[in-house]
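User: Here's a chain of 391 residues. Predict its fold as tokens.
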Amino acid sequence: MIAVEPIETKAKERTSTVRFYRPELDVVRFFAFAAIFLHHELPRDVTQQQNGAFLGHLSLRAQALLSGTANAFGFGLALFFTLSAYLIGTLLLREKELYGNVDLRAFYIRRILRIWPLYFFGLGIGCVFAIFIAKRLHDLMLLASFGLMVGNWFSMIWRMSNPMTRLWSISIEEQFYLFCPVTVKYLSRRGLYVFSGSLIVVSDLTLYILGQRHVVTDSAIWLNSFVQFQMFGAGLLLCLWTTNRRLSIPVWGRLLSLVSGFACWLIACLVFEAKHVGVAKSGSSMVAGYTVAAIGCLLILLAMLDVDRRWLPDWMVWLGRVSFGLYVYHQLAIDSVPVLFAHTHGLVHFLLCLVSALALTVFLAALSYRFLEMPFLRMKERFEIVPSRLA
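Assistant: Prediction complete.
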């Protein structure tokens, strides 16, 4: 089903005008955000009182399937992690191949210019919310841990009701960036394979230990850096396997891979309960669930890599381009719109809130991309060794 065609390696004299941009990865970003948005909008627990009116007319089996699907969509974040490792690894390997080295200083400047402006702006919104709306000044301590890029660890034990709580995932991504470029710079390709596999082994050991202790899946497991490193390891392995290769996959194969990827997420939740509201069943179920989920992320990426540009809707590519803003603002939008439809109930209320929250999220992300992110993205281009997407 998959044909791998070698691509000629360009000489090291290749100029920096050759730009590396794959619009299909923007579509993957859109898929990841859409899954996360639905994960936070759909009822994840049939026992939640606030969802009773929405779920009441469904059978118990349908309720379980809906909540399981909502939980499975949470692996959209795992897809973001996998994609990030794949893309960063690919760019760094290209840089090393073309110029014989990796410029660590330039890498970190690029990451700071890409992530920090919007990230710290989002944390600023969180601080305003904590001080003037929620009036919970002690939440500022948790937000401070976000600023130090350890927010995921503090979020395990300190819960807060704040629209910027979702930014804990940036801490994990920044932790990965601490060692990823260093390993690419100093390790051989074989060493990188060993390193990527080691990330997965460490994740599985962590999952097994935590699962055997029956900890809460949504906090002690889901927010754990060592657990999520499995997704980064999977992304790096895919990067190593596809470097200087082009994947030739028929349309039916891509569709099958895409559907199978989402099916893996469902299996991880419905069969192994890897991500649900409650405690872990066992260590083996956690290991199996996250392994299947990681395979699902890889299948979704494989379905999209080197796809014909004609199959990529422009609106999906654009939404993927502004996906960081979509992620930062989506919970703010979700929390804000219900008051507008206070007199509606059940399915009508849910649909009105969902559509309005999505529209508000896209609006805020578009404004943010144009006026906040784009100036820094243009600055980032000055430090690109392998030029990527234009701002």
